[in-house]
Amino acid sequence: MTRNGDFGYTIEHHMNDYAYLREKIREVQNYPTPGVNFKDIAPLLEDTGAFRDAIRGITDFFKGKKIDKVIGIESRGFLLASSTAYLLGAGLVMVRKKDKLPFKKITRAHSLEYGKGILEIHIDSVLPGEKVIVIDDVLATGGTAEAAIKLAETLKGEIVGAGFLLELPLGGREKLSRYDVRSLIRY
After folding, report:
1. Is residue 52 annotated as a catalytic residue, yes or no?
2. Active site residue 182
3. Predicted structure pTM score
4. Over 60: is that where the pLDDT of 151 sits?
5. Residues 6+ apart with CB under 8 A from 135
6. pLDDT value, residue 10
7. Which of 42, 76, 116, 137 is the most buried (most CB within 10 A)?
8. 64-186 — its CATH code?
């Protein structure tokens, strides 16, 4: 790596060549329920270079789009979205699970690969007309990302796109087909 201004280093990997990041993702069989093979991104986050490359890759998807807010979905999405927001010069919005936000909020139910959930956003997190991206670690069925997008749209935010570290072939891309969906790693 070589030193650079804003992030400290330049990335030596070719743009869109993130296949090596797959090696940093651990698969845990039958977690959190039988039949689900969980993609654990902890080893990737623990590796300085891989984490840096992942953040830079996600950020590069949306450079030059004048993003106002980056929505991170609880909880691993927070880790990726906060760095992305910082590099894009945007605000960070947390979309959280039910009863985790202290202020006035709106909610949206959604389906998961292995159950159901409810997401919430503060009513003043996204202002009308703000350009918004949604960031999460995994795109699977698309239910969680779709719920976050719908929450931002309810607040009259303009969805520029959605970015993910990895994507599983479980229909999420199709569910989000009207949006610009970007993933560093596709299984």
Report:
1. no
2. no
3. 0.90
4. yes
5. 58, 70, 71, 72, 73, 77, 80, 81, 84, 162, 163, 164
6. 40
7. 137
8. 3.40.50.2020
